[in-house]
Amino acid sequence: PLGMDPDGIIESNWDEVVDSFDAMDLKEPLLRGIYAYGFEKPSAIQQRAIMPCVKKHDVIAQAQSGTGKTATFSISILQQIDTSNRECQALILAPTRELAQQIQKVVIALGDFMNAQCHACIGGTNVREDMRKLEMGVHVVVGTPGRVYDMINRRALRTSSIKIFVLDEADEMLSRGFKDQIHDVFRTLNTEVQVILLSATMPADVLEVSTCFMRKPVRILVKKEELTLEGIKQFFVNVEKEDWKMDTLCDLYDTLSITQAVIFCNTRRKVDWLTESMHKRDFTVSAMHGDMEQRERDVIMRQFRTGSSRVLITTDLLARGIDVQQVSLVINYDLPSNRENYIHRIGRGGRFGRK
């Protein structure tokens, strides 16, 4: 297709690179929020994509997790919204609840000095509470496609003032079967809406969505090499039998709990089994997967973020929603089924140049 090379990688058509936040001509309170959040220098995608987004172009960016893409569209949104108007002006769709909540946190933190209001509409939470928040008026809404469309349908989320529509991890949303809901949501928006699409991979269905929704998009590729594995040391332990992994993990436990570690398994059942086996041997670990109630997942995530829980066992579903500064060790108990997920799993500990 147009603008693609045969490997499914988009060709950039925008070459402007701005290497400092000060040079982006952003609102002063937004700049303060960016620096207060701990950003010093824009990452590769931020240097390339913030400007075309702020200049109101439709933008399609190919970038993995851990590149600073959430802040890229959050900054672009915060620069463009008018906080004196309590209508929703930007809508962000994401594939999982965890990612939606992660995005909400970033928007609120970066928009702290602007008093930007951001609400997360996600399944598994109280519908009435959602409606109440939306009716009070928020500037930015982030959510999973099903719940967002539900809120639009119930007329709790008014779309008339939405000027920016962001699809984050579009490939994941489509592979989870959200295509119809995304189209339904898009149909309720103004024809003039600016569309920003982010995706790690560019399969045909993502390109189809971009053709339907976007006008002359700016295409930006953040190459995989610039991404996530710099500064991350990788080791493997050669165990001859599956049964021996457990003993090896227990031997490593003291090393794990000194800082914080995430252990990935390929299935929910394996997560439960491993957690139980570790508990039986009196090791403290917590576990999280998609079968759990939202409330339970929130509590576990909070304990892990604050450091009161040290070792978290989880599945790939949540690899993308975990952004924990202190994670210094990632263990792949099972090898992930594909390369993408491997990068998602281990590209966490070294986010933004941390070793």
Largest pleated sheet: 7 strands, parallel
The helix-strand sequence is EEHHEHEHEHEHEHHEHEHEHEHEEH
Beta-strand content bin: 5-15%
CATH architecture of the largest domain, by name, is: 3-Layer(aba) Sandwich
Structural class: alpha/beta
* Beginning-to-end CA distance, first to last residue: 38 Å
- DSSP, total strands: 13
Q: What is the CATH top level name of the largest domain?
A: Alpha Beta
CATH fold descriptor of the largest domain: Rossmann fold
Spatially, the strands of the biggest sheet line up as 5-6-4-7-8-3-9
- Low-pLDDT runs of 5+ residues are 349-353
> What general form does the structure show?
globular
What is the helical fraction, as a range of percent?
25-40%
What is the tally of helical segments? 13
Q: What name goes with the CATH superfamily of the largest domain?
A: P-loop containing nucleotide triphosphate hydrolases
- Radius of gyration (CA) equals 20 Å
Count the domains. 2
Secondary structure elements and their pairing?
Elements: E1 4-5, E2 9-10, H1 28-36, H2 44-54, E3 59-62, H3 69-80, E4 90-93, H4 97-110, E5 118-121, H5 127-136, E6 140-143, H6 145-153, E7 164-167, H7 170-175, H8 179-187, E8 194-199, H9 204-213, E9 218-221, H10 243-258, E10 260-264, H11 268-280, E11 286-288, H12 294-306, E12 311-314, E13 327-332, H13 339-346
Parallel strand pairs: 3-8, 3-9, 4-6, 4-7, 5-6, 7-8, 10-12, 10-13, 11-12
Antiparallel strand pairs: 1-2
Helix pairs in contact: 2-3, 3-4, 6-8
